[in-house]
Amino acid sequence: MMKKMSIPTSKTSLVLFLCQIISALDVPLDLSQPPTITQQSPKDYIVDPRENIVIQCEAKGKPPPSFSWTRNGTHFDIDKDSQVTMKPNSGTLVINIMNGGKAEAYEGVYQCTARNERGAAISNNIVIRPSRSPLWTKEKLEPNDVREGDSLVLHCRPPVGLPPPIIFWMDNAFQRLPQSERVSQGLNGDLYFSNVQPEDTREDYICYARFNHTQTIQQKQPISVKVISTKSVTERQPVLLTPTGSTSTKVELRGNVLLLECIAAGLPTPTIRWIKEGGELPANRTFFENFKKTLKIIDVSEADSGNYKCIARNALGSVHHVISVTVKAAPYWITAPRNLVLSPGEDGTLICRANGNPKPSISWLANGVPIAIAPEDPSRKVDGDTIIFSHVQERSSAVYQCNASNEYGYLLANAFVNVLAEPPRILTPANKLYQVIADSPALLDCAYFGSPKPEIEWFRGVKGSILRGNEYVFHDNGTLEIPVAQKDSAGTYTCVARNELGKVQNEVQLEIKDPTMIIKQPEYKVIQRYGQVSFECIIKHDSTLLPTVIWLKDNDELPDDERFLVGKDNLTIMNVTDKDDGTYTCIVNTTLDSVSASAVLTVVARPNPPFDLELTGQLERSIELSWLPGDENNSPITNFIIEYEDALHEPGVWHYQTEVPGTQTTVQLKLSPYVNYSFRVIAVNKIGRSQPSEPSEQYLTKSASPDENPANVQGIGSEPDNLVITWESLKGFQSNGPGLQYKVSWRQKDVDDEWTSVIVANVSKYIVSGTPTFVPYEIKVQALNDLGYAPEPSEVIGHSGEDLPMVAPGNVQVHVINSTLAKVHWDPVPLKTVRGHLQGYKVYYWKVQSLFRRSRRHVEKKILTFRGNKTFGMLPGLEPFSSYKLNVRVVNGKGEGPASPDKAFKTPEGVPSSPSFLKITNPTLDSLTLEWGSPTHPNGVLTSYTLKFQPINNTHELGPLVEIRIPANESSLILKNLNYSTRYKFYFNAQTSVGSGSQITEEAVTIMDEGKMVQPLYPRIRNVTTAAAETYANISWEYEGPDHANFYVEYGVAGSKEDWKKEIVNGSRSFFVLKGLTPGTAYKVRVGAEGLSGFRSSEDVFETGPAMASRQVDIATQGWFIGLMCAVALLILILLIVCFIRRNKGGKYPVKEKEDAHADPEIQPMKEDDGTFGEYSDAEDHKPLKKGSRTPSDRTVKKEDSDDSLVDYGEGVNGQFNEDGSFIGQYSGKKEKEPAEGNESSEAPSPVNAMNSFV
């Protein structure tokens, strides 16, 4: 809501503005003129008798007027009274009271006369009256003894003062007595009680009278009231205490405030209603006060006359009173006479018209003398309320008084006739600047004077054309009005005044400004209590105007509170409270206009708690609760929650009872016997719950036998030979009386047995021993107390204790659906063998080994439970290409039965996971090297890899796709014949016989210049391979980088979050044996170089072999083997010594030549630098242990060969055992191999080779 104002702000303001200019058309003070009264005291002048009396009378004229006074109609000679002085150059009298004068001596009617050579003006009759505040007359006040419910009036009867005092009632502590519909103060000051209550008893009802003029307060003697209570209070229909009778009259003067009053007695307290017979109460001027006992109509007029009826009503009847109102009127002006300035020979009129009720009489005076006896003037003629002047001469100048009077008052107006001959004058300052807002009126002044009256003309610019037309308005006082000023209205305007004696002109300037606007107004806000809210007020204004912004709350200044933060274009209220509710207005003021916008802030909160709880209609099993709602805090109450407390059984604990809609404030509540109730009510609105009300009074119900039996009765055995009967104990309020107990009864179902019963107390279970295993029982539990039994309870079926099932499911079958899912079937067990509630079947299944790796692992068994009497189930999440076993067990409430025989099944191959990594290295002009890791989950036997790649241009468009098939045993590839300086995108995946797995992608770029090819900036460890046995694994790798690198091997359990374990490799060897591994466990491994942090190989995963059925012994560590080797070495040493001796004797020994000619290719010399065996030397192109067999075909060891002979460590012989868990290829480059791939091994250093190395 936005309002816009300019200056003048509206058409009404414009009219008033022009009227002010017209009435201010005064004769310049340098010209002769009759006196004009400018200031005087009020007609009815009540003065403080303790202070000096000042009677004002100011006037102007040329020459300056002299002053004289009359008192009570006779001349008042101030020179004869030393207490009275007249101010210099003024007619104001000062009567000195503070120096011993008495105000009462100067009571009377005073009138001032201002006179000069051109006439005399007179003031109103000023009635001087000293204010009075007389003391209260002493009176003997009797105590007021009154019966409860009767009416009472305490009379004040204040002393008569001038003016009348203000009356109010207080107690001895100077606290105002509370008033209500029942107790209120009348217009005459008396205190009225419609009916008295016991709380009205007190001895300090005191009436106070405050006299404003003297600033004194007087009090009446305290009045005592004693209310006599009776057992029964008689209700009474209304009776009017004031006014009395059925009718009365009231006279009020026009413009005053009409006050009508009706106060009634009665029980219950009557309510008051007002109507106007034959009409409506004026909507905008009518107000109700004093709890509607007083009707107030402001600014009354003759139209408000009529009959006003007040109606007092209660439940027993009604009474009414009619007040006949007559509105009279003291005289008021229709047309007051105005000053006349005439040139010699001109004509003119003075008009004096007034109205009133009754019609006022009009009389004229000339220079303060009744015109009938005033000196004659041939140029004037009196015609009732008009004086007509014809061909006036200079001697016709005078001051005329018009007096309009009736019985309720008078009006007196002075108007002079001034005869002058004067050329034009322009009184508006030259070049005056006017600034107005665009699209609003512009008023350009041309205040003038001249006699005869000059003619006024306006021109645009200095020498422009005369202004005419409908777009301009020319006022009699010379003002030029432009009703809607536009931007092009700005400029210079010239005013010309001329009469027969001359001509004069004046220029003024007009500027047009842009209007001030609020471009973002504050908006309606709803905020919760203690929140924060902001109102915006963003403005746009003329750049030459300086705006000021003020904020109002409910059209008043903002509270002086630091929570209100006024910003440049906003108002923020912190920590909002209920008092902040209201209308906020942003007002933007400039020197030319003002705009405003308002928005309402509604503060919502949880309701205030209900109050005044009352219990009525008490019965044994029900009661009525009523309450009064608290303030809903601007959010309607949606419902009330009723809670109760049982002070007898659970003191301090409140329970939910019921709830009712927010429009309901009474409820009928059901009660239980033997409960000490108290209630409270909680109000709920959209914001939340109120605080609980204060508790109601307590109400204790009588005892009775129980109404209900325990709930949730069950019979479940905890052991195979018992029955545990349980129930929910009754709560205290359910007991209905003292001595609560339970009668527990049971008998075996379907057996012709009698009921067995026991009575127990303070428990909620009973155990029956010696029962058969899992048989049904009929059970019932009945409540009883000292007053009797509850109704007969219903029976429930329970069972004695369960025992473990006796048999396992049979005919277990497995149907493999795909590589990860299988379906298992079984035959249900006979229900008699379950010996309990059949809960379902459990399937235990576990992986035996991977068909790809041919190794066994210790894997935890997985369990799937199938509820109910199901005979099949699905096994999800299986690993492809694996061997599994399972068994099935039946389950009851006691536990699991025996397992069925293990059932084996295998899953087929699946597609592999993506390769573990893809790295692209060694970029050249036309080639890239690709390295990859095998899939973490091959899910079968890998058959090949598929590489797809295609170039990418600068706009990220893809070129033709090239596809390459790569054998499964490869781990790197050099791509040649590529384009130089080209980006390629690669797609890589693995295949099994089932299909292709998910792919991994990578991008790389060939280089632009061969000269830019550099060696790797960091070492590179690649082709990490593992050969695993039961408790150890041989790790080997390839290395590119600086010489003499110190390697280390890190390893850990695959899938574990434990830290990596680290082993240092001695020397610069490219292999290492990890020992102390756990059989049948998957490990992760990686290789790094010391001093080159962050440069490690990619991770590899291997799995140790399963535990041996019998422990394998390392032959190289056996004592007998070591002794044999020592003996052989000693024998060789002896032979060497013999040969040396023989050679020294000169004989030739041909062994050396023969050895050189027929050297065994398997015997290698020992390296000088590190002492390692020949088969691990760098002479073999720095290769690690080779994948694939190096054993001659004629030396293959069969499966039937001995598994405990030295052939395990024989030269070139592959040591292996069959699938019963014995050792297979401990140094094999592959983790697992199918038998069809042949027997593979990598040679490890054996004792035989070691021996040959020394020969």
TrEMBL record:
Q: Which PROSITE patterns match?
A: FN3 (PS50853), IG_LIKE (PS50835)
Task: Please name the CDD domains in this protein's record.
Answer: FN3, Ig3_L1-CAM_like, Ig4_NrCAM, IgI_NrCAM
Where on the tree of life does the source sit, at the highest rank? Eukaryota
The processes (GO biological process) annotated in the record are: cell adhesion
Q: In which residue ranges is the amino acid composition biased (Polar residues)? A: 690-706, 1239-1255
Q: Which residues form the signal peptide?
A: 1-24
- Alphabetical keyword list: Cell adhesion, Cell membrane, Disulfide bond, Glycoprotein, Immunoglobulin domain, Membrane, Repeat, Signal, Transmembrane, Transmembrane helix
For membrane topology, the record states:
Single-pass type I membrane protein
Q: Name one GO cellular component term.
A: axon
| Family affiliation | Belongs to the immunoglobulin superfamily. L1/neurofascin/NgCAM family.
What protein does this entry describe? Neuronal cell adhesion molecule
List the lineage, top down. Answer: Eukaryota, Metazoa, Chordata, Craniata, Vertebrata
